[in-house]
Amino acid sequence: MSNHFSAAGLTHPGDDPRLDLTDLFVFTAPDNPDRTVLIMDANPFMKGTEFHPDAVYKFNIDNDGDALADVAFSFTFSEADNGRQTATAYYATGPDARTREPRGEVLIEATPVSFDAMAMPVEAGPCRLFIGVRSDPFFADAEGVLHWLAAGEPGIFDWTGTDTFGAANILSIALEVPNDMLGGRSEIGTWITVSVRRDGTLVQMDREGNPSFNPILNPDDIKNEFNATDPVDDVQHHVKPLSETLQRHGYAPDEADAAALTLLPDILHYERTMPAHYPNGRVMTDDVFSTRMIFMTHGRANPQGVKPHDDLMAVFPFLGTPHS
What we know:
- The protein has 324 residues and is of the alpha+beta class.
- The protein has one domain.
- Helix content is 16%, strand content 29%.
- It is built from six helices and twelve strands.
- Strands 3, 4, 5, 6, 10, 11 and 12 form a seven-stranded antiparallel sheet that branches.
- A hairpin with a 2-residue loop joins strand 7 and strand 8 (127-135).
- Helix 4 (234-248) packs across helix 5.
- The radius of gyration is 19 Å and the shape is globular.
C-alpha cells in the first residue's frame, strides 16, 4: 500500500474509508514550470461514495525547512444530496496555515464534486482545481507481500504479477498552483492531512508525506498515534520504533537510525529545479512500492513486476477517468 489502510490492523482511520488518505503527488506542471501540481487521493476502493462532510482535507506546505506549515490549501464539503456534493477551497499562510481549521482566503465556494467521467477542472482564483472520482493511480502487488509475510523469509518476495489496485477508484483533489503561492524558495516540503469534527473540535485522523511509510514501516501499535500527530514531532517520537523495525530486517543499529532519519519528519520534499521523481517530489509512474520494499529489507527485495497504469492523462488532472 502507499497510504491505503493506514490505521492499526491495516484498517481505515476511524473505520471510515472517507478519512483514509491514499496518495500524495507533487510535481511541476508539464506545460508551465512556474506552476506546481499537488494531488491528494482518499477512500481506497471507493467504499464510501463522497468526501466526508464533517472533515477538512488539507495540503500542508513547509517552505523554510522547520517541519511546520507555512502555506495550506484546505477543502471542506457539503452533505451529499441525491448523488451531489459541493466543495469549498481555502488558501492560508502564516499562523492560519498551522491550524486544523479551514482558514484564509476562499479560492472557490460550493464548486460541484465530480462523480462521473465527464467533469472538467475549474478555476479557483489563480489555481486550477479538480475534485472528484478518478482511477486510482497507485500500482502494487500487495498479494506478493502477504505471501512474503506468511513465508517468514525476510527479503524473499513471491510476487504474483497482479496489480491489486489496477481496477480501483479513489476520490481525488488535484490542484495546480502558481509557485509564488508556495513561498519564495525553490524547495518545499509537503504533507497531507484529514481531520474530522468531533464535539466541535477537529481531530486529525490521517496524514501522509512519504509513500508506503506508515502502513508498512510503523509498528501497528503506533499507527493511530502517528496519524494524529504532526511531522514537527516525528524525530523525537518515531525514530526509535522505525529504527527497530529496520533492525529486524537486516540493518545494523547505527545504520537503521540513519535510514530512519531519511524518512522523518514524514514530509515529501520537492526541489522544483530538479525533475520530479520520488524521493524528489512524486509522479504517478514512480514505483514507490518497490522502493519501499527494497528499503525495508536492506536491499534484499527484488522489484515487483507490475507497471504504472496505462490510463494516466497527459493533461490536468492527470489521473485516469474512473472505472465503471
